[in-house]
């Protein structure tokens, strides 16, 4: 897979618009012999996204919340160019995404570090495949390693690092190429509460400096509010954007902000938007238990 | 957050000769000492029996010369350079055959493991060949390649190639799909995906196959030399036996045992080094 030489395409959005999603639909075809019950009918196709429209500004920090199974990961995969939309498209800087984009980086819940590479070598990886020279990439990787407070852990293998440290390495790896777009899929979900708080603050501290565009999926409403300029609430599957909520909290933010009245109000608002979708998704799961593999 | 600990010293103890010397592990030193201490008496008893039984006439000294006589034959062959010469020839044959097996099996295994169609085409053929003994094929190799070096190299190649091939395929199939996804998201080319992701993930499995393959190659070359050769340690043993020079025969056998020990030690050390990134609990047993 080589990096996409992007084809220009008029998206018709203002030039401060970094990511544009236009009527993004995705339907999965199940494997032969598999089927699923949808609305009382047996089917071998699962509609996951049913027309997602969204514009994300340059330098914006957007968080996405939605019921489990609503297609948030699939949506990120489409923006990342790892999965093709069945219909509609995702565009970055006005160019349709059809393959992994040079300027996009992706962080996963399960870190996805290469276990045979040391912390430093993991951060070097994306620079290496871009053909950056040895000395230059080493220096750059070291810079990002230090940025995340991992000085002294250069030569540790992932199996010798705690979960929080592994995720720091994974984020450092993602940022090492100066991406225009940073996609994060529940990056802190596997961490304990304290580590999670620390990493949220660390991420914001670094983001304040680089101001890259971030799309961050989470199940934690608090996390969604604390990090975001704007929260996107997805409907149950097949998903659309249900509502977007601008978060007008001052930056830089301190973790204490979660105790403020304003924060509480956002909490109520997000939960209101989400409640109905979550119960819809739960009914959907009840049907999905009729999943005939 | 808990501070990461260095797990590298927590490898479960193994028998002393299989433990790589490069890893400092006090517990294993103690273990090694106790393994030698406990194991040595049995070995000494056997050696003593070997020395005394022929001398006391319990067994025929022609078939079983005393150990001291075997050692003096060994010393003689070392001194004259005869032993080194034959060992050199055997190891060279095994190394060439094994090297060719590596060159063929790893790329082929990468393709077969990665591309289902490729595997479907070749799987049946591989299974058939794999279940044909290299010894059964020796006459074929000799017919086709002649009695010289080529047929010996062919048998060592054949002896190793399937261990390597199967383990490469298994290694490739066990690649974590998330690693592939992550690599692709970072713009990894197809070539780099093989070289920097799939191959390193498969290394533990490949190295395990290589260990089996090296041993198999060496055993096969010995057997082939016994059956049809004018040189090599297998020939030396077989020829000494035919000449009733049993002290030389046993000297050859002991040499092989010694080489086997060294080889295993080296391979285990190599494997430990190639897979040192793994969490210690994942480390396979010997
Ligand atoms: N390759 C695939 N083939 C078939 N169905 C798929 C595939 N990938 C995802 N799905 C289905 O698409 C739906 C959405 O999956 P997705 O992983 O995007 O959900 P999600 O919103 O990220 O959920 P979670 O919050 O639990 O991570 C699920 O019902 C899932 O079963
Ligand atoms: Mg998900």
From TrEMBL, chain A:
<dbReference type="GO" id="GO:0016887">
    <property type="term" value="F:ATP hydrolysis activity"/>
</dbReference>
<protein>
    <submittedName>
        <fullName>NitT/TauT family transport system ATP-binding protein</fullName>
    </submittedName>
</protein>
<comment type="similarity">
    <text>Belongs to the ABC transporter superfamily.</text>
</comment>
<dbReference type="GO" id="GO:0015697">
    <property type="term" value="P:quaternary ammonium group transport"/>
</dbReference>
<dbReference type="InterPro" id="IPR003593">
    <property type="entry name" value="AAA+_ATPase"/>
</dbReference>
<feature type="domain" description="ABC transporter">
    <location>
        <begin position="19"/>
        <end position="261"/>
    </location>
</feature>
<keyword id="KW-0067">ATP-binding</keyword>
<dbReference type="InterPro" id="IPR027417">
    <property type="entry name" value="P-loop_NTPase"/>
</dbReference>
<dbReference type="GO" id="GO:0005524">
    <property type="term" value="F:ATP binding"/>
</dbReference>
<dbReference type="InterPro" id="IPR017871">
    <property type="entry name" value="ABC_transporter-like_CS"/>
</dbReference>
<dbReference type="InterPro" id="IPR050166">
    <property type="entry name" value="ABC_transporter_ATP-bind"/>
</dbReference>
<keyword id="KW-0547">Nucleotide-binding</keyword>
<dbReference type="InterPro" id="IPR003439">
    <property type="entry name" value="ABC_transporter-like_ATP-bd"/>
</dbReference>
<keyword id="KW-0813">Transport</keyword>
<dbReference type="Pfam" id="PF00005">
    <property type="entry name" value="ABC_tran"/>
</dbReference>
Automatic annotation (TrEMBL), chain B:
<keyword id="KW-0812">Transmembrane</keyword>
<feature type="transmembrane region" description="Helical">
    <location>
        <begin position="62"/>
        <end position="83"/>
    </location>
</feature>
<keyword id="KW-1133">Transmembrane helix</keyword>
<keyword id="KW-0813">Transport</keyword>
<feature type="transmembrane region" description="Helical">
    <location>
        <begin position="129"/>
        <end position="147"/>
    </location>
</feature>
<comment type="similarity">
    <text>Belongs to the binding-protein-dependent transport system permease family.</text>
</comment>
<dbReference type="InterPro" id="IPR035906">
    <property type="entry name" value="MetI-like_sf"/>
</dbReference>
<keyword id="KW-0472">Membrane</keyword>
<dbReference type="GO" id="GO:0055085">
    <property type="term" value="P:transmembrane transport"/>
</dbReference>
<feature type="transmembrane region" description="Helical">
    <location>
        <begin position="218"/>
        <end position="237"/>
    </location>
</feature>
<feature type="transmembrane region" description="Helical">
    <location>
        <begin position="153"/>
        <end position="172"/>
    </location>
</feature>
<keyword id="KW-1003">Cell membrane</keyword>
<feature type="transmembrane region" description="Helical">
    <location>
        <begin position="249"/>
        <end position="270"/>
    </location>
</feature>
<dbReference type="GO" id="GO:0010438">
    <property type="term" value="P:cellular response to sulfur starvation"/>
</dbReference>
<feature type="transmembrane region" description="Helical">
    <location>
        <begin position="32"/>
        <end position="50"/>
    </location>
</feature>
<protein>
    <submittedName>
        <fullName>NitT/TauT family transport system permease protein</fullName>
    </submittedName>
</protein>
<feature type="domain" description="ABC transmembrane type-1">
    <location>
        <begin position="87"/>
        <end position="271"/>
    </location>
</feature>
<feature type="transmembrane region" description="Helical">
    <location>
        <begin position="95"/>
        <end position="117"/>
    </location>
</feature>
<dbReference type="InterPro" id="IPR000515">
    <property type="entry name" value="MetI-like"/>
</dbReference>
<dbReference type="GO" id="GO:0005886">
    <property type="term" value="C:plasma membrane"/>
</dbReference>
<dbReference type="Pfam" id="PF00528">
    <property type="entry name" value="BPD_transp_1"/>
</dbReference>
């Amino acid at each position: 897979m080589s990096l996409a030489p992007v084809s220009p395409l008029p998206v018709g959005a203002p030039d401060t618009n970094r990511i544009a999603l236009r009527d993004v639909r995705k339907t999965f075809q199940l494997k032969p012999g598999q089927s699923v019950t949808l609305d009382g009918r047996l089917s071998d196709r699962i509609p996951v996204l049913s027309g997602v429209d969204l514009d994300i500004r340059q330098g914006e920090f957007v968080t996405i919340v939605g019921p489990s199974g609503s297609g948030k990961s699939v949506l990120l995969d489409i923006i990342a160019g790892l999965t093709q939309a069945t219909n509609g498209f995702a565009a970055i800087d006005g160019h349709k995404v059809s393959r992994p984009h040079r300027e996009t980086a992706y962080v996963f819940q399960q870190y996805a570090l290469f276990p045979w590479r040391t912390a430093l070598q993991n951060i070097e990886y994306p620079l290496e495949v871009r053909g950056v020279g040895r000395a230059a990439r080493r220096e750059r990787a070291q810079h990002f390693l230090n940025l995340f407070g991992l000085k002294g852990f250069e030569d540790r293998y992932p199996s010798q690092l705690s979960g929080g440290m592994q995720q720091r390495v994974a984020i450092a790896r993602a940022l090492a190429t100066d991406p225009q777009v940073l996609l994060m899929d529940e990056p802190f979900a596997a961490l304990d509460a304290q580590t999670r708080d620390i990493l949220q603050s660390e991420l914001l501290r670094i983001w304040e400096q680089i101001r890259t565009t971030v799309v961050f999926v989470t199940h934690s409403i608090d996390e969604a509010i604390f990090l975001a300029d704007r929260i996107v609430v997805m409907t149950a599957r097949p998903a659309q954007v249900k509502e977007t909520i601008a978060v007008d909290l001052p930056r830089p933010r301190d973790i204490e902000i979660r105790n403020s009245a304003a924060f509480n109000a956002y909490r109520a608002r997000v939960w209101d938007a989400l409640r109905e979708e979550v119960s819809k998704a739960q009914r959907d799961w009840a049907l999905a238990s009729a999943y005939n593999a | 957050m808990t501070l990461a600990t260095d797990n590298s010293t927590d490898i479960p103890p193994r028998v002393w000769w299989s433990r790589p010397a490069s890893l400092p592990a006090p517990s294993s030193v103690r273990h090694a000492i106790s393994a030698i201490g406990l194991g040595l008496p049995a070995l000494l008893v056997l050696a003593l029996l070997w020395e005394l039984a022929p001398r006391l006439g319990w067994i025929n000294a022609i078939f079983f010369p005393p150990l001291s006589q075997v050692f003096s034959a060994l010393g003689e062959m070392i001194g004259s350079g005869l032993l080194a010469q034959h060992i050199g020839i055997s190891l060279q044959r095994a190394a060439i055959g094994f090297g060719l097996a590596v060159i063929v099996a790893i790329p082929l295994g990468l393709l077969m493991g990665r591309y289902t169609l490729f595997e479907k085409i070749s799987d049946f053929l591989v299974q058939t060949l794999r279940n044909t003994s290299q010894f059964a094929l020796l006459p074929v190799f000799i017919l086709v390649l002649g009695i010289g070096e080529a047929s010996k190299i062919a048998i060592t190649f054949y002896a190793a190639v399937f261990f390597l091939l199967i383990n490469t395929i298994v290694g490739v199939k066990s690649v974590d799909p998330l690693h592939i996804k992550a690599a692709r998201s970072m713009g990894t080319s197809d070539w780099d995906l093989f070289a920097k992701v799939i191959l390193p993930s498969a290394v533990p499995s490949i190295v395990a196959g290589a260990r089996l393959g090296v041993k198999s190659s060496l055993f096969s070359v010995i057997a082939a030399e016994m059956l049809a050769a004018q040189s090599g340690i297998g020939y030396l043993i077989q020829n000494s036996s035919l000449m009733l020079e049993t002290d030389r025969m046993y000297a050859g056998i002991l040499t092989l045992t010694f080489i086997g020990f060294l080889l295993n030690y080296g391979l285990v050390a190599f494997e430990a080094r190639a897979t040192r990134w793994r969490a210690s609990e994942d480390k396979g047993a010997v």
